[in-house]
Amino acid sequence: MDALQIVAALAALGQETRLEVFRLLVQRGPNGLAAGAIAQALDLPPSSLTFHLQQLTHAGLITQRRMSRQIIYAADFAAMNTIMFYLTENCCGGNAALCAPQCNPERAPASARRKGKAA
């Protein structure tokens, strides 16, 4: 991903419903969820969900595949990891050992993780 793609992905995630959809798909793993199941889980009308899924797909954050009569959406974990790497690759001047554990997204403080789950 180049900088413009990263900006597009972050902009897509900068909207509350799309962030909720993406987080739900991340929780579901590579198998993903059918559009109807996403709508039900997040209590969204199908027309609104379609718009948000299109935005996330266009930003390269989710994939879609047809399974019989359903479209299954899944988080694109490679894209997610690329964004995380892009945001943290130059932490502490590129020497993460200088300020570890601050540069490790997996080690976010518990308070930050709880805030993220509430959002």
Number of continuous helical runs? 6
Q: Determine the mean pLDDT.
A: 86
Q: In terms of structural class, how would the helical and strand content be classed?
A: mainly alpha
Record the strand order, biggest sheet. 1-3-2
Radius of gyration: 16 Å
Calculate the terminal CA-CA distance, rounded to whole Å: 26 Å
Strand content: 5-15%
Q: What string gives the helices and strands in order? A: HHEHHEEHH
Main sheet, how many strands, which sense, barrel?
A: 3 strands, antiparallel
Written description of the protein model:
There is one protein chain. This protein has 119 residues and is mainly α. It has six helices and three strands; from the N terminus they run ααβααββαα. The chain has helices spanning 3-13, 16-28, 35-42, 46-58, 77-88, 110-118, and strands at 33-34, 62-67, 70-75. It has a three-stranded antiparallel beta sheet. Strand 2 and strand 3 (70-75) form a beta hairpin. Helix 2 (16-28) crosses helix 4 (46-58). The chain is elongated.
Short key terms for the protein model shown above:
119 residues; mainly alpha; three-stranded antiparallel sheet
Question: How do the helices and strands line up, and which of them pair or pack?
Answer:
Blueprint: H1 3-13, H2 16-28, E1 33-34, H3 35-42, H4 46-58, E2 62-67, E3 70-75, H5 77-88, H6 110-118
Antiparallel strand pairs: 1-3, 2-3
